[in-house]
Amino acid sequence: MNLFNGFIPLFWNKSIKLNSEEFIKGRGAQQNKTNKFSEFSYEMRDDFLEFCRLEGEEADKNKTQYLPIFPKTIVNKVTSIDVGMQYSMNPYQGCEHGCIYCYARNTHEFWGYSPGLDFERKILIKQNARLLLEEKIRSKRWQARTIVLSGNTDCYQPAENQFKITQACLKVFLKYKHPVGIITKNALILRDLELLKELSKDNLIGVNISVTTLSEKTRRILEPRTTTIKKRLETIRILSENGIPVNAMLAPIIPGINSHEVLNLAKAVADNGALSFAFTVVRLNGAIGQIFTDWIKKTMPDKADKVLHQIAECHGGTLNDSRFGIRSRGEGHLAKQIHDLMKLAKRTYFKDRVFPKLNTNLHEGYKDGQMRLF
C-alpha cells in the first residue's frame, strides 16, 4: 500500500471562513485523523502551505476519488443486537455525503485510509458486487432473509450516478424474487422507481429514508452532500404513493442540534406517507469523537461545549459508548426525554400504521432465475 494513501492534508484556498475558522467547504470532516492501524502520522507544515499560497498553487484540490476494488464476498451477517437487520451489503465503502456523525467512518481505517476526509473523498467501488450477490443467493445452502443495502454506507450516494451498482443489484433481487431493504438519504432512489414497484408487487422491498432535521441550514453543515430535506420528504411521498413501504430514520438525534425537532420530524414524515419511524441517540465511537469535536468547534463554537457535554450525558459521561443494547439508545435524563418524545410521536402520528414484513417465501422457487414448477 502506498504510505501516502491515508493522507489528504487540509488545503489553503478551497476553504471558506465560518465563525472565524478555516472551514473546508462541501465536506463534513475538517481533518484527516491518522489511521490508528498505521505506524505513520502526517501533518501539514505551515511553510509548505505558505509556499503554495505564494506560488498560487493548491495544496489539495478537494476532489473525490473513485477506487475500484474486487472483494471476495458482498453479503455480511449482522451480529449486533443494536441493528435491526440480519444481513447487509454495501456496494461502496466510504461515502461522499460526508455526514459528520457517521459510525461507518471507522471502517475506512480497515482499508488503510483515514476516517476523516478520506472517508468522504476516497470511495471504494465494489465492481463485482452484482456477481457476488447472485452467487450468494443462488447457493443451495442460502435461505432467503432480507438483505439490506446500505448497512454501512449509502448505496445511493453520488457514485451510484456513475457506476449504477445498486441498480444492478436490485435487478438481481427482482430476478430471484428475493427480499431487499434499502437505507438512504438520497432522492436518487427515485431513478429506480419502476424496479421498486416491480419488487413491491410481491412484497419484496422496504425502504428506509433518513431525515435528520427540517432545517436546511443544519443539514448543509451536518450532512453537506446529501439531498435537501424537501427532496427527501418528497421521496417518501412518491414512494408511498406507489405502494412502496417507507420507514423514516430519524437518526441520529443529537442533543442541542436536532433534539428539539423530534415531534416536527415525526409529523413531517407521517404527513408524507411513512408507515413507521426509528431513531438512535448519537454516539461518537472510535475516531468519530475527535472528528466531530473538531467539526462542531468550527461550525458552532458558541454551543460546542454544551452539545458535547449533553452527548456525553447520554452515554455515561463519555462520547465513545460501545455497550451493546445501550449505545444506540443512550441513558440518563436527556435520553429519557428523547425516548418519551418518540413514544408521544408514535401515538400521535403513527397510530394504526404498520410496516409490513417482507416476503421470504418466493425465493426458493426462483433460485434458477425462473419459477420452478416442481
Strands, helices and their partners?
Layout: E1 15-18, E2 21-24, H1 46-55, E3 65-69, E4 75-77, E5 87-89, E6 92-93, H2 117-121, E7 122-126, H3 129-138, E8 147-149, H4 159-163, H5 165-175, E9 180-184, H6 193-200, E10 205-210, H7 216-222, H8 229-241, E11 246-253, H9 262-271, E12 276-281, H10 288-299, H11 304-313, H12 333-349
Parallel strand pairs: 3-7, 5-8, 8-9, 9-10, 10-11, 11-12
Antiparallel strand pairs: 1-2, 4-5, 6-7
Helix pairs in contact: 3-5, 5-6, 9-12
Can you walk through the features of this model?
The strands form 3 sheets. This protein has a 7-stranded mixed beta sheet with strand order 4-5-8-9-10-11-12. A 3-stranded mixed beta sheet has the order 3-7-6. A two-stranded antiparallel sheet has the order 1-2. It is 32% helix and 14% strand. It has one domain (15-354): TIM Barrel. It has 374 residues and is an alpha/beta fold. It is globular and about 70 Å long. It contains 12 helices and 12 strands. The model is unreliable at 1-21 (pLDDT under 50). Helix 6 links the parallel strand 9 (180-184) and strand 10.
